[in-house]
Specification:
It is built from 16 helices and 15 strands. With 439 residues, it is α+β, with helices and mostly antiparallel strands. It has two domains: 222 residues, no CATH class; 189 residues, Aminoglycoside 3'-phosphotransferase, Chain: A, domain 2, CATH 3.90.1200. It is elongated.
Amino acid sequence: MTAVPPGGTTDADADAAPATDDAALRLRHLNEVAGLLWPAPASAGFDVRGEVISEYLLVLGARRPRLLIPARHPRAAAAAVRRYAEPGVVTQRLALRGLSTALRTGLGAGAPWPRFRVCLDGAPGGPEVATIETYLRGALAPGGADTADDDDLVLSMSIGPARANRKPVLQVLTRYGRTVGFAKIGVNELTRTLAAAEADSLRTVAAAAPRHLIVPSVLHQGRWNGLEILALSPLPIWLPRARHSTARLRAAMLEVAEIGGVTTAPLRDSRYWADLGRRLRSLGTDDTAGALREAYARISERAGDAPLRYGSWHGDWTPWNMATLRDTLLVWDWERFGGGVPVGFDAVHYTFQDAVVRGGSDPAVAVTRTLDDAVPLLAPFGVTSHESAAARLTALLYFIDIAARYVADRQAEAGARLGRPREWLLPVLAAQVERLHFG
């Protein structure tokens, strides 16, 4: 079984052709999860043989693999592309909406995209084989979602960029194009843990009844074939968008920070500081871990008595994990939600990630700029004590925290862009720590 389309890239090609690294890593991921989602006696790939039980098209081909869509259900395929496009930037949305229209009207049927097939080994006409399709149909059929007007459910699958926490995300649709939900599949220890954590997080956030944002609801949570399955309701990302408002964003982030309450304590006496220390000690002995521990020790000396406010955070709030509507914000991907962190972490994360991923900034430069802008960035969160010192300290703690996460998750081995903090944080970390001044 292979997930490398004819004319596509292979694992060996990745080192020889840097321009196709991203495509090679995406296809490698598809190859790795195919056997989990479609286990024997089924097989899945671009060159498998046997009785075809499911068939998908690879959008946008082998050199830009982004999405598997159902090949035999044009209305579902069109809806899958449109929903995939909705959270993106305007130019991407417009291009993919055109593709969606072509698929719905039949004009896209001749697209020269590779076909990814799920085949059954053995004689045709045997009993139904257990695959991810059959599992989700059972979980989200009439007992779990209203499909009374539709006699089947089909899937599409996004193929994301390289990250250690990357997992299959399946859109579950009726064959007539109605989105029933989205299923996240935990395929290893890290992603299984994250999928289970997101289910708990969403229940916690929903119970808080936030006024400034809407989150998905949990439709189903279960285990199958060693995988953690989390099915979530679709958010209405197709509704008209509103202009981005920093004030609305900050209000929503502050509301999340207050879930579970906000406490105040000197940094050195806080639960957060003890937890961060334990995480840093567990990282190993390489240069990055050593530098992070050294920064931790110096911060304790220079700012250990600084009072900070602690609350909850989303944990990965970025422009691509949300949508702004006229009367609310839609926010998804809550797998990193947690409590007891310095208030304002979400704002620092959003600003830094946006500058690097969307703005194309050099990560080391973005670190420095984010720290220099910490006072106005964090003022809406009440981080105003000791003039600028508390704001800079909060932002600096975020960078050490996120670097520790990336190292612990082994993001570098997965090929993530920010997976090597030694290249973007360590060059500026020591100097930034020495700029901390509390009187």
